[in-house]
Design brief:
With 77 residues, the protein is mainly alpha-helical. The protein is built from two helices and no strands. Helix 1 (28-56) crosses helix 2 (58-74). The longest helix has 29 residues, at 28-56. The chain is flat and about 45 Å long. The termini are far apart.
Length: 77
């Protein structure tokens, strides 16, 4: 139907701005600095999401902590 405002194909290659060459510049310092900035923002958001999940689901967070501790105890250097 031509009157629809959305696309049915939601694959990542169809997303606007998904072209990897579109956001690149000739200067490697600028692009790497921007990449580091975006990565740092992503990691901050990820840590915030983990903290929120731990607050919302304390039982699951406790079991995850215990599981991680067990992994660290049984890990061989």
């Amino acid at each position: 139907m031509p009157d629809r405002d959305y696309r049915e194909d939601l694959s990542p290659r169809a997303w606007p701005g998904a072209d990897p060459a579109a956001g690149r510049t000739d200067e490697p310092d600028v692009s790497s600095a921007e990449r580091r900035r975006r990565r740092a923002r992503f990691l901050r958001d990820l840590a915030e999401a983990r903290e929120l999940r731990d607050r919302v689901q304390p039982r699951r967070a406790k079991t995850a902590r215990l599981r991680q501790a067990m992994r660290m105890r049984t890990f061989r250097w």
